[in-house]
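Follow-up to my post from last week.
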Amino acid sequence: MYRILEHTMINLVLFGPPGSGKGTQAQKIIEKYGLVHISTGDLFRYEMSHDTPLGQQAKAYIAKGELVPDSVTIGMLRNKVEAHPDAKGFIFDGFPRTIAQAEALDALLLEKGTAVMALIALQVHDQEIVKRIKLRGATSGRTDDSDEEIIRNRISVYKNETSPVFDYYASKGKSHSVNGIGSIDEIFGRLVDVIDQTAVAARA
Ligand code: ADP
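User reply:
Got it. Predicted complex:
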């Protein structure tokens, strides 16, 4: 029993619309739980800033607020997971963003003898999201954060293509929602409650 407990990986999907605070909260979660953080948005920005072939492929989609094609994104994600064979667990931030990505993630984790433990969605309404992203755009240098039309497109892509991922994991009993409005520490506290409860349940 204790052996099984020791080897249970904590694999979390941090979910929510653009600008809902996933990156900020992911940093705090990795500090507390010692997980490996994989943000597909950060990975794409790194590739773009180094002008790699992958970055060049992603650029046009990101500039328009569209999703990078699944084949490209899934391949990049697999490489990143396989670069950390000894991870205690992963926090996936900005992935999966489509049902096809969710299925690919499940297949990949199954190959490694593990699975997604929980998906946790940060709930923030549209008006607040647009406000936060514009504020971030003023200092981040992210061009996809500056133009309201592109921001609105990202929100509609989220609603049409990404939100079904919540239902996909809900059907497996793995989806949870937390209120994403409040101070960073308040929201973190809500996330910790869900993570600790699901970790206990996974080990029961
Ligand atoms: P945000 O959550 O604020 O929209 P991200 O940094 O997660 O920002 O993503 C920025 C952009 O990178 C997205 O709008 C999209 O174009 C691209 N991207 C990131 N993750 C994925 C993914 N899993 N699948 C497809 N495209 C992605």
